[in-house]
Amino acid sequence: MSVFDVIVVGSLNTDLSVFTDTLPGPGETVLGDKLVIGFGGKGANQSVAARLLGGRVALVGKTGCDDFGYRFRTNLDKFGVNTDAIFETKDTTTGAAFITIESSGGENRIIVIPSANLLLSVEDINGLDKKGFFSSRVLLCQFEISPSTTLHSLQVAKHNGLITVLNPAPPPRKDGTKEETEYYRLLPKILEATDYCCPNETEAMQLVRCLPKSDVNAAEYGHEIELDGVAKKYLRCLSWLAEQGVRYPVVTLGSNGLIALIATSILPPRIPNDVKIIEHPDLNYPAKTIIHVHAPTVSKVTDTTDFTIILADKRNSAKERGRTQKYSLKFT
């Protein structure tokens, strides 16, 4: 029997979120509405989200030996996330993120300082594996820790029979930071070890540009060609990710929902009204189907960068949250 339903290997960042009516331009000073100090990082956010969906969840990460790290563990304990595999280091501080959010529309700009997140090591993962820690069902990863640790975690999980899920953000860059460049180099191996890969539309385009012989920018796959309201080049992204070994690629499209390449066998006999099957002769995959899940309509925008903000925001109805959770469980 699995000890956990979900293991998340990823980042923990103290989020300093500033809300403002207008995002500042270069060199510009604007007044903000409020400051929220919360707990974030893609790894921590995933672990809390999975726990709120009812899963038994453990987070694997690293913090500094500081007050931010202590507060993080206390907060995760309150949610019921297992923190036994959150290591401490005296060599640096807990990771932090500085987030500026437009109050009316939810658009944001983020600067992340990884700090201790980058010190989570392959040796840390091996030590957990020897203790049988990876007795689970699902592993979630992102690109906010050491690239070699992310790859090794995915490979260890696959070896132990886990379903692997990757949120490939921030996206790799050939000429970016040291970590972004290393993710670029390791990307083929990372995707090969991934069952579900779920970038957003911008990240998907950046990912496929990292892959050899990618013609994603060819005119025939431009924005002007759409199927069910989705630009064909985003649909082709599913194909390229599948060719790299991703079992079930997903691309999230913001207000336009998401598209996914899933096993035809798991489709229900009666397709919900907000799920459309996309058919095209150029997009034909044996035993798999492309679906477009339309996003639910909400009255106001909620920023989802900092999970503290999500929990504090009561503007979305219970029905809307329930629909969002249903699709989270179904496809990730």
UniProtKB/TrEMBL annotation:
<keyword id="KW-0418">Kinase</keyword>
<dbReference type="InterPro" id="IPR002139">
    <property type="entry name" value="Ribo/fructo_kinase"/>
</dbReference>
<keyword id="KW-0067">ATP-binding</keyword>
<dbReference type="GO" id="GO:0005829">
    <property type="term" value="C:cytosol"/>
</dbReference>
<dbReference type="InterPro" id="IPR011877">
    <property type="entry name" value="Ribokinase"/>
</dbReference>
<dbReference type="InterPro" id="IPR011611">
    <property type="entry name" value="PfkB_dom"/>
</dbReference>
<dbReference type="GO" id="GO:0006014">
    <property type="term" value="P:D-ribose metabolic process"/>
</dbReference>
<dbReference type="GO" id="GO:0005524">
    <property type="term" value="F:ATP binding"/>
</dbReference>
<feature type="domain" description="Carbohydrate kinase PfkB">
    <location>
        <begin position="5"/>
        <end position="270"/>
    </location>
</feature>
<protein>
    <recommendedName>
        <fullName>Carbohydrate kinase PfkB domain-containing protein</fullName>
    </recommendedName>
</protein>
<keyword id="KW-0479">Metal-binding</keyword>
<dbReference type="InterPro" id="IPR029056">
    <property type="entry name" value="Ribokinase-like"/>
</dbReference>
<keyword id="KW-0460">Magnesium</keyword>
<keyword id="KW-0808">Transferase</keyword>
<keyword id="KW-0547">Nucleotide-binding</keyword>
<keyword id="KW-0119">Carbohydrate metabolism</keyword>
<dbReference type="GO" id="GO:0046872">
    <property type="term" value="F:metal ion binding"/>
</dbReference>
<dbReference type="Pfam" id="PF00294">
    <property type="entry name" value="PfkB"/>
</dbReference>
<dbReference type="GO" id="GO:0004747">
    <property type="term" value="F:ribokinase activity"/>
</dbReference>
<keyword id="KW-0630">Potassium</keyword>
